[in-house]
Structures are given as C-alpha cells and as structure tokens.
Amino acid sequence: MAVVLGRLLGFAFLVCFGTGLYSHFLQEPLPWMRFPTQPAQLYQLTQGVHIVAGIACFPLILGKLYTVFPELFQTPPLKGFLHLLERASIALFVGASLVQITIGLLNTYQWYPWPFGFREVHFALSFVVIGSLAIHIGIKLPIISRYWTKRRAATALADDEHADALLAARADVDARIARLAAERAERAEAAHPEAGIDPDLARGGHPERTGATDITTRGLTGRLFRWIDDTPAAEPAVSRRGFLTAIGLSTASVVLLTAGQTFAALSPFNLFAPRASGTGPQGLPVNRTAAAAQVTESAVAPDWTLSVANGDRMLALTRAQLHALPQTQVELPIACVEGWSQTATWTGVRVKDLAASVGASPDAALTITSLEKEGGYRVTQMGAEYVGDDTTLVALELNGETLDLDHGYPARIIAPGRPGVLQTKWLSSLEVTS
Predict the structure, then answer these.
(1) pTM of the full predicted structure?
(2) What is the pLDDT of residues 372-417, one digit of tens each?
(3) Nearest-angstrom CA–CA distance, 434 and 432
(4) What angle do CA 392, 393, 398 make, to 5 degrees?
(5) CB-based contacts of 342, cutoff 8 Å, min separation 6
C-alpha cells in the first residue's frame, strides 16, 4: 500500500516540479531561454495542472503517512548510517512537502500570513522536496522494486507471511519443548532425587537423549504447522479496497471541486477555488485592482500617452491614435499563477507593428513599464518570440467593450502562453531592447 500511494505521490510531485519550473522561468528567464507562444492555452494548461496536482497531494501524502505510521516508531530508532539517512530524508521530505503544498494552497487565495517572500521560498523548497524524495527512493529502491507491481507484491507478501509464520511456529515449538523438558526434569527428580537433574533439561534445552522424545518433538511440530495452515488470517480493521476507495474519493473530490477555476468544463463544480469564471468587471476575474496599484488617477489622466522607444526613435501615442491604427481581434486566456484562468476576446494593436514603427528588428525584445507606483511586476521583459507573435496585442477593448479600469485601462498587454502577472496593465511605455 505504501508503494501504491508512493507512486501516485511521486508522480504528483514531479508534475508539480516540472510545471513549477516552467512557470518560474517564464517569469525569470535565463538569457538563452525561448518559449513557445502556441498553443495560446499552454500556460493555462500547465499552471492549472500545477495547482490541481498540488492540491491532490494533500490526501495522497496523508494516506501515505497513515500506511507507514507504525514504522516511524521503530526500536531501536536508528540501525546504522543508511537507516539514519532514510529517516532524515523522510523527515525532510514530509516537513518540506507539507509546508510547500500548504503555502501553495494559500497562494491561490492570495493570503500570505508569513514574513518571507512566497515565490522565492516556494521555488527553493521545490528542490528540497525533490532532492529528499530522490534520496528516499534511492535508499528504499529494493523494497519499492519488490512491491512495484501487483504480481511482485503478491509474491513478496506471500513470502513475508510464510516467513513470519515459520518464525512464529519455531518460537512456539521452542517454548513448548522447553516446557516439556522442564516437566520431564521435574518428574525425573521426583522419581529419583538421588540421581540429580540433567543439566540440559534444567536449562530447558531440547531433550535429545531418547528416541521417544524426538518422536514427541516431531509430532508436536507437525501438529503446530498443521494448526497454522488451518487457522484463517485475521481480517484487518480497514480493508485495502476500502482504504484505497477513501483515498481515491478524497483526491477526486479536491480536484473536482477546485479545477473549475482553470478548466471551463468543470466550472459548475468549482466550490472551493477562489476564482469563478464569469465574475468580475466585464465577466473576467481581477487579481490586482487599479486602487491597489495606485493608478486610479494616472490611468484616466487626459494627457496619457503610450511611449514606444527604440534608442533615439520614439513615438508618444494617445488612446485615440492607438484606436486609429489597424486593429486586431484575438481570443486569448488570462492564466494566473494562482491557477485560475479564463478566455476572453481582446481587440487592439499588434505589438510587432508598434515595434516596427520605431525601426525595431524582427528579433527585438521589449521592456514594458506600467503606471503602477510600485510592485515586482511594474517593469517586465518580453522576449522576441512574444513580440513577433501576431496575437500579442496592446489591448484597448475586452469582450467588445472599452477596457475596464481594473482590467488595465487605458491599454494593457495580452500575449499567448504568458502568466497573468506578465500581461501588464495600465501601460506607460514599450522600450525596444536587444
């Protein structure tokens, strides 16, 4: 059972690790990194799977701990260096995992009751979790291999049960023979007190002086083994099938009741996730409002312009001038790191056309600045692969209406396959970089 749950838990953590790395490097790419812009729903899928897999880890890790709980209190507690390494890896893995999935869950609600930066700690802990998991798997690999498949497990369990029965029977036989020897010694002493007591019998050893005793011992052993074979095994308090059903239903429930914030088909079942599709201004949820960004005045200022610069060449475009340029309409999702996403219709000017208007080369990247006063995403970078994509827009309208202030009025970025935190709202400038 521990191996069955361990397989599922290990797979869930690997999925979380892979999708988490993808999200991290989208936000903080290394200089050589390039990312696919299509399909446009790629990040919507990967981050949705990341959150769902992380939530599924809760019942899986609790079930795993339940199955191995008695083993955590072995006597003696340490049996050597490998045993120490095994127990240390378990302690580190369990502790780091519980912290990791708990702060990840709270992040989906944008609640941060701790003094450290979530993104940095979440990223660092992912390596602690995977590293301790790898050490634990390496140490326990012989046992994992032995019970990996149903057939192997059945053979191993049969061997274990047979060995346990043999050991128990041997101990019982030895105890009964010792009692018979003691009784024989007592009778011998009572009948002939002057002869003394046989030292072997006095110690409770195996009486091997007469053929009759050997026959008695062999007969007793045979009866004991026949009794073991005929005795039905005790039924466990919780059946294996019942336990697996409980874990399966728990996992399916937490997934079903939260995945609706990412996958539209499951939105009717979205009971626990903090973002529901179709809510918010213009039918689209909002994470960061204009008031929180302190742009309620600057975003509606009549002298607002979007600055587009490439070295000495610069354009300052009003909203009316942006509207006068060729408009493109696309359907793209907003997909946030918290796991929620929703597809909407956006209308605006292609970023590649704005970059070309100031003489940018086809492989140009951009530095994008918001009107926000402060924040980790006030200034963001956009790689050339996104700048050159035909569906990357400076959006002016959402679902056929002028952008709501909370959705980025007067203009915002919308690009395929990017985290929502990089879909900069309340644009101030676009600067061409190499």
Answers:
(1) 0.76
(2) 988 889 999 999 999 999 999 999 999 999 999 999 999 999 999 9
(3) 7
(4) 120
(5) 264, 277, 278, 284, 285, 333, 334
